[in-house]
Amino acid sequence: ERRNAISPEMHAELEPLFRRIATDREVNVVVLTGAGEKAFCVGADFGGMQDNLDEGYDDGHHELMWGSAALVKAQLAVGQPMIAAINGDAIGLGATMALFCDIPLMAAEARLADPHVGAGLVAGDGGAILWPMLMGLNRGKEFLLTGEIMGADEAHRLGLVNHVYPRAELADRARQLAQRLA
Q: What is the reported pTM?
């Protein structure tokens, strides 16, 4: 319903989950995907930010920004190969998490963006480095400075994702690749 937006509860659950995966010798490969078909993850839960403002956090609870960086660091500490099955829109932190995976796969109907600039923010979760690194400095800066949304074909053309599949095939393709890597 909230398009897999990262809430404080998800922050609290995902970081230790990544740490457990990193130390679990029985896990050979990880597939990261979103629940449902609308979104992989739309990043921060802006509805939750409004709740934080209403509860008296003048800045919308900026500790979550540090939490985003910690979440990404925990993800990067996972030594097993990670496949992103980007089944829907991956926005902001959601895009960063998807693109930090070793092999990102994307549904043809999905979109990528990092629109932090629209809220007057710089991507504090690694996106400011990741996008230019993956697609070239000038292209990366353009997408970060405009917050423009790109479709799957463009993400593939620019080197952000390895493969694009129809949404109906994505999970099976990710599973097949995971079995091959495992």
A: 0.87
